[in-house]
Amino acid sequence: MIPEIGHYALVLALLLAVAQSVMPLVGAARRDVAWMETGRMAAFAQLAAITISFAALMQAHVVSDFSVLNVVNNSHSAKPMLYKVSGVWGNHEGSMLLWVFMLALFGAAVAGFGRNIPPTLKARVLGVQGLIGVGFLLFILVTSNPFARIYPAPIDGNDLNPLLQDPGLAFHPPFLYLGYVGFSVAFSFAVGALIEGRVDPAWGRWVRPWTLVAWASLTMGIAMGSWWAYYELGWGGWWFWDPVENASLMPWLAGTALLHSAIVVEKRDALKTWTILLAILTFSLSLLGTFLVRSGVLTSVHAFAVDPQRGVAVLGLLILATGGGLLLFALRAHVLKIGGLFSPVSREGALVLNNLLLSVSAAVVLIGTLMPLLLDAFGHKISVGAPYFNFITPFLTIPLVMVMALGPFMPWKRADLGGILSRLWGVALLTLVSVMLALWLAGVKPVMALVGIAMAGWAGFGAVWEVADRVKLFRVPLADSLSRARGLPLGAWGTAVAHGGMGIAIAGMVGTTFWLAEDVRVMKLGDKALIAGYEVTLDKVEDLRVANYQTEMGHFSVRRDGDLISTLTAERRWYPVAKMQTTEAAIHTTFYSDLYLVLGEENPGGGGWVVRLYHHPLVPWIWIGSLVMVLGGCLSLSDRRLRVGVPARRAAPVSPALQPAE
Amino acid sequence: MSAVTRHRLLLLLPLAVFLILGGYFALGLTKDPSKLPSMLIDKPAPTFALPGLSEGEKGLSNADLTGKVQLVNVFASWCAPCRVEHPLLMRLAKEDGVTIHAINYKDKPEAAKAFLDQMGNPFTAIGADKDGRVAIDFGVYGVPETYVIDRQGRVRYRHVGPLMPFDVDETILPMIRELSK
């Protein structure tokens, strides 16, 4: 009964989405307030209907209702509760339901919070959101019904892919989707503005908070995914250039570019046409990403057309959304007035360079991911993999990081590059010190590692220096600096924190890529192994049966200079229902490095176990840096000028001289 | 051409690029990539001789592909789906007694060894295809890929992407049994 309610609620949501798309669009064209107002109500009602539907599917999973096909295919009664819940979105149908749920959430949020947006623009934004909703709800109802029943109901289910049964991955998809779907708002704003024929600084201000929410969530989602790969796949790799990962990286790159170009629209009334295009493309890449991930089989471009019916539907949605957006762009973008002029060396110039580099990066990833598919149409066969990406990444990242540290120091309109560079002497010095430190600790080879550390230092210290410069640290009394720091808008803090986080993350990537130490050996009970100054002893190996798997647990003790610093447990798990094996690595982390142990197979010959030992320098910084970036996004989001609908409560900041240019 | 027309034509560019891309997608959809017929189906496997993963270790050449029905698996340590299908290859080798040869694609030998040490080694012999040259001859589309080779060394079936239990039980194993008769 409950699954049927869920199904009907979904049909109702489709009808409401139709209302949400038609009425406000027509209303806005006719300037009919009542019709436009309907869009808001429909957005709330659609959210309510999809919430009911989502809750119904959740209920089926939680109580293990095996008369529902989706539950049979993706759950098992012995599965821990956390994974019964996360199993709801751990499959194609459920994840699509989560997708529309979030779409409705954003739609209702625009309807609820966007009080200061002009009524016609708001109606059009809601209408476009509604149209996207119609497409996806139709897609779910026609090709991917999560509530399909099975008769007779089997005794138990097929279990969720054991690799996905992991706390880190349980909440990875919701964040990722929050990011993907969040960019739909930017898309709707872009399409709405094209219909209106007007983009002004206020538009930039309205679209920015939504883009920030999406960007921060996507950053979080990608970080969680890579963290999961790091500890679950069993050798400490954190990025594979897999099509699925690339699928989330592309909208991130485009979204990061959008975030920056929207600033130029807001502050300088320039780059409008480009920003609109970027908003359309970012969401298109999100759509592409969603489907590369969620097209049936696990992980690769190959899965794109596993189910031809779904493949065609996917293509149809992509063409309608992207093609429609771009067609409108081609027809209407010329009415947007060209805004403020600026010299190439200026804050605007730096942001344009940022946009160029980020878009080229997104294009490079896109080409690398889809090239096998594209060339196949010609009958050529080529393979692109990690080597291609590893080769090309430094060429784009190095200039990007150089500009990233410089940009915030540049004034709008026109900057004096020489003057700025001479102000950055401290950053250069600190960067040099960190390179010397790396040289002293790790030696001159590989040289790329030193280049990488220089980049990380330049980015990280550049961000710190910028704040120091703004609050005039050590140039005025400390108390003055503190009050200046308090007066600094949160948006400025957000920029510095996010840029600093990038520096930290780069240091982590460089550290683990170039300075990894590894060892593999057969260890018997009581054997000792030495790695990076740690002495690791295999104490005990035991077999256990837990919940829905069997496990072989290796207990290790870790000593440094004879002192016991940690005891670790590495596991090899066997999931009988899914017939799959997974490894659970044991990780001892200090702030600046990880000791990573993996229990391998039992040695068939002379007893003992194959044990792999890794030392990953700086690896935790990848995720610390990502979290810092998310924090930067949140700070920027709470800047009061972006707080949608909330009138300014505080008086003007302390003194006009303190108010920075952004 | 006036500046205004040029500007407006420029605005058309994104749409044009997208339509071309969309066309490719549509073309791609008409083919089921997981069943992409190898150009080699029912033809002898390409001639090749690859060195082993390390000095002195046995490599793989097309001479090894005759005499016995077998699988050739193309893998790389940097490929996540390879990790996913690996336990299945272990099962095929150990429980079903299938001979599996491997082509290690664009990989560092140490990384490939580490991968096998950790996940187990189901392969009778491994050829290191460092520059991917042999993979091109096979028409490899992306890693992992798996080929079924008959006694005469002819390619009989090609599977693109990670093997799933379903593929093995419904397609690969019945085919091997049929060919072994």
Automatic annotation (TrEMBL), chain A:
It is found in: Cell inner membrane. Residues 89-295 form the Cytochrome c assembly protein domain. Keywords: Cell inner membrane, Cell membrane, Cytochrome c-type biogenesis, Lyase, Membrane, Transmembrane, Transmembrane helix. InterPro entries: CcmF_C, Cyt_c_assembly, Cyt_c_biogenesis, Cyt_c_biogenesis_CcmF. The chain crosses the membrane at residues 6-29, 41-62, 96-113, 125-142, 175-195, 207-229, 273-292, 312-331, 352-375, 387-412, 424-442, 448-468, 488-517. It is a multi-pass membrane protein. GO terms for biological process: cytochrome complex assembly. The keyword Membrane applies. GO terms for molecular function: heme binding; heme transmembrane transporter activity; lyase activity. GO terms for cellular component: plasma membrane. Residues 315-640 form the Cytochrome c-type biogenesis protein CcmF C-terminal domain. Belongs to the CcmF/CycK/Ccl1/NrfE/CcsA family. Required for the biogenesis of c-type cytochromes. Possible subunit of a heme lyase. This is Heme lyase NrfEFG subunit NrfE. It comes from Niveispirillum lacus.
UniProtKB/TrEMBL annotation, chain B:
It comes from Niveispirillum lacus. GO terms for biological process: cytochrome complex assembly. This is DsbE family thiol:disulfide interchange protein. CDD domains: TlpA_like_DsbE (cd03010). Its main location: other. It is found in: Cell envelope. It holds the Pfam family Redoxin. The keyword Disulfide bond applies. Coiled coil: none annotated. The keyword Disulfide bond applies. Residues 39-181 form the Thioredoxin domain. Belongs to the thioredoxin family. DsbE subfamily.
